[in-house]
Design a protein that fits this description.
- This protein is of the alpha+beta class and 137 residues long.
- The chain is 34% helix and 19% strand.
- The radius of gyration is 27 Å and the shape is elongated.
- This is Ribosome-associated protein.
- GO terms for molecular function: peptidyl-tRNA hydrolase activity; ribosome binding; translation release factor activity.
- Belongs to the prokaryotic/mitochondrial release factor family.
Length: 137
């Protein structure tokens, strides 16, 4: 059971693991041992509250398919068990990050001094460029 918050958990039957072979160099066992893992979690069929489902499905994350399935590939470690733990931790972080409230953006104005500095730089640059022209004889 994966605990997202103290009152929200994901049951083991909702998470599907599929062992796969890891990519990259691996020595003698590279083509024999399936130590990497694909974690699949169907958001729409899960027991998460509707708010969590809605926020997850609205994310523009490449790990979420059009069907609403989260696919996480874990291959950092050499053992299947550690890769499973890594994938579960990443799923937990994804769900927690999706449900954090978004801080509203406050519009700000540039200060008078910064506006003045900007205009001064522009006029100085204009003078430099004006000196590049051909000299009239």
């Amino acid at each position: 059971m994966l605990e997202i918050t103290p009152d929200i958990q994901i049951a083991d039957w909702e998470i599907e693991f599929q062992p796969i072979r890891a990519q990259g160099a691996g020595g003698q066992n590279v083509n024999k041992v399936a130590s990497a893992v694909h974690l699949r979690f169907d958001v729409r069929r899960s027991s998460l509250p509707p708010y969590y489902k809605e926020r997850l499905l609205r994310l523009s994350d490449q790990r979420i398919t059009q069907e609403g399935v989260i696919v996480i590939k874990a291959q950092s470690y050499r053992t299947l068990e550690l890769n499973k733990e890594d994938a579960l931790q990443r799923l937990k972080e994804l769900i927690q990050d999706a449900t954090k409230p978004v801080k509203p953006r406050r519009a700000t104005k540039p200060t008078k001094a910064s506006q003045r500095r900007r205009v001064d730089k522009k006029t100085q640059r204009g003078k430099i460029k004006a000196l590049r022209g051909r000299l009239s004889s």
